[in-house]
Amino acid sequence: MTSRITRKFSELRKKGQKAFIPYIMTGHPTLQRTGELIRLLEAAGADIIELGVPFSDPLADGPTIQKAAQAALQQGVTLSSVIAFVADLRKTTQVPLILMTYYNPIFKYGEERFARDASAAGVDGIIVPDLPPDEAGNLIAFCRKAGIDTIFLLAPTSTEERIKKVAQASRGFIYYVSITGITGANLSMDASIGSHIAHIKENCSTPVAVGFGISSPDEAATVSQFADGVIVGSAIVRQVENPDEEISRYLLSLRKAVQ
C-alpha cells in the first residue's frame, strides 16, 4: 500500500510543486499547544509534518530543539504519549506525520511493538538520526510490515557506499542534511548542493528533502530549486510561543518561498 508520504510527493510532483515540511517538538510547551500548532501548520499549507519525540540526549539537535525537548520531558511526554497523541490527531487530520526520534526510546519500547503501535496510531514515517541503515535491519523490516516509511539521512560528506545504502533503505523520502553539524546551525549554501542532490537521484527515484539550518524564506526558496522538499525545524520551534497571527505569517512566507 502506498504511504501518505509517497502519495503527497506524487501529488506535488504532478503540480510541479515542492513539499513544505515543518518540524515541531511534541509537548513543547504543552501537548495542547502542539495540537494548536498542527492546525496552524496545516492551515499554512504544510504538506508533511515532523513531530519530535523528546529525548534526554538529542545529539543531532542544537540548543533550540534541546531546550524544547527538555520542556516536553518536564511535561512527562514520552514515546508512548506521542503515539497516543498521534492517534488522537488522526480523528481530525490526514496530513502525513513523521516521528523524529532517537533509537534509545524505540529500543526500550521494543522495535516490533513500536512499529505496530505507531502504525495503528497513524504514524506515516520515522527518522532516527542516530541509527544508520546498516544497523537498522530489524527496525526496517518491522516498519515495512507495518506500512511505516523509514527515512534515513545523507550529508555533504556521505560516501558513495553510504549513498547507496541510504537510497536502498529509505522510503517516503531521503533526508539530506544541508550542513555538517547540528540542527539550527546557520546554513552555508554552496553550489555543490544541487550536484549532490542530483547525484543521489542517480541512485534512486526516492524524493530528497533538505533540512538543517533553513530559517528564512530566501533560504527555503534557494533549497527548493534543487530539492523535492524543504524541512524547517529550529526556526519554527523558536516561534511556538508567539501569537498565532505572527506564527501564521511566518509559516505562509515559508510556504510561498518553497513554491
Question: Short summary of the structure?
Answer:
The chain has 12 helices and 9 strands. It has helices at residues 4-15, 31-43, 63-74, 79-89, 103-109, 111-121, 137-146, 160-169, 192-203, 217-224, 234-237, 244-258, and strands spanning 19-25, 49-52, 97-100, 125-127, 149-151, 153-154, 174-177, 208-211, 229-232. α2 packs across α12, α4 packs parallel to α6 and α6 packs parallel to α7 (137-146).
What CATH architecture do you see? Answer: Alpha-Beta Barrel
Strands of the widest sheet, in order across it, are 5-4-3-2-1-9-8-7-6
Task: Say what the CATH topology is.
Answer: TIM Barrel
Query: Mean of the pLDDT scores?
Result: 93
How many domains, as an integer?
A: 1
Distance between the termini: 28 Å
Order of helices and strands: HEHEHHEHHEHEEHEHEHEHH
Q: Strand tally, please?
A: 9
Radius of gyration: 17 Å
* CATH homologous group name: Aldolase class I
Question: What proportion of the residues form beta strands (DSSP E)?
Answer: 5-15%
Q: Quick one: CATH class?
A: Alpha Beta
- Helix content class: 40-55%
Q: Based on Cα principal axes, name the global outline.
A: globular
**How many helices does DSSP assign?**
12
Structural class: alpha/beta
- Runs with pLDDT <50, length 5+? 181-185
Largest sheet: number of strands, sense, barrel closure: 9 strands, parallel
